[in-house]
Design brief:
This protein has about 425 residues and is of the alpha/beta class. It is built from 14 helices and 16 strands. Strands 10-9-11-8-7-12-13 form a seven-stranded parallel sheet, with helices on both faces. It has a four-stranded parallel sheet with strand order 5-4-3-6, with helices on both faces. Helix 2 runs antiparallel to helix 5, helix 2 packs across helix 7 and helix 10 crosses helix 11. The termini are far apart. The model has no long low-confidence stretch (mean pLDDT about 95).
Length: about 425
Amino acid sequence: MDIKHYMHDLGQKARSASRAMAKADTAAKNQVLLTIAGAIRRDAALLRVANEQDMAAARTSGLTDAMLDRLSLSDKAIATMAAGLEQIAALSDPIGEISNLKYRPSGIQVGQMRVPLGVIGIIYEARPNVTVDAAGLCIKSGNATILRGGSEAIHCNQALAKIVQEGLAAAGLPQDAVQIVETTDRAAVGELITMPEYVDVIVPRGGKGLIERLMRESRVPMIKHLDGICHVYIDDRADLAKAAAVAFNAKCHRYGTCNTMETLLVARSVAAEALPQLAALFAGKQVELRADAEAQIILAGYPHLAAATEEDWQTEYLAPILAVKIVGDIEQAIDHINTYSSRHTDAIITEDYSRALRFLREVDSASVMVNASTRFADGFEYGLGAEIGISNDKLHARGPVGLEGLTSLKYIVLGHGEIRE
């Protein structure tokens, strides 16, 4: 296969389809989403078979537990994909929305209109649910998309792509609006990220190595996050039972996700009481605790204990490993987070309203939480229907990226024949 020719052909088709999608009415876009949701439920058994083919190959090739977790498509995950599409269909259509319309002294009215970005290239590893989430969000926001999933999920992605294109055809919209890159050749990624004439934005979903490569080589703007070094801080005015439940969930609900807690910070005055409670919970999951010197003394006797190093504060484990540090107060906690966080998601557990507000104001992350698990940092949980990715950048989009993150604003001017003097 001539990869360059193949990718440019996809790009040309996507650009043409994007013009049709930008004009599509809300009813047609919602029809696509609901048709896809119904077909996913209808073909759930076929999707599980395709996923098991991918899982078997992944186990043989020695993929990590974190990658296997992302690749797995459970009955619940299939149901969530369908529900996510229905939630997107129920959301207001942002396209064409006019805001901030004001009269100027000249007599003209100036405002802004929300419009699609155009063609979005999405590059992702494992996670077959991304195929549906990304397609659904791009369709509703009037964009075309080129999806390049990882080779480890090829069978499942192809099965899902057929369902998506069935939905587009049923609504009379171009099937080229959602295209799957059929080749697993990595050269296809290199072409996709260097086609600004066809692709307006790249959204990478994958490991740090993939995203670092794309940051070096891409000629197309990106919506991205590099990693998820998420913190939970247990304040000395926390309800410790609440703190234990939240911190345990933040770490152990799933290990291989970017919103999993990787560092636990505990106020010194409650550490002797809080840490043993948490250690008992973590021991049941065989979580290794990498603790600073103070925490090691309190956790002495814990079966999976190691000394923390400077590297631990900077590591996204995606595994049953947790860095633990004792801090003097909220100021030290915020300083540690703003020094080591990847700006993804960070949480405080406290019953003090003023401290909660201070944490929300001063922690410089895309999602900042009070008395809630970091695992909620997710487009579905935020009511976005799904997410195309999470951004910890500060320009254009930040946090879980849903419909609005896939649009931009252009200025519009309404006049009555005014001329500039």
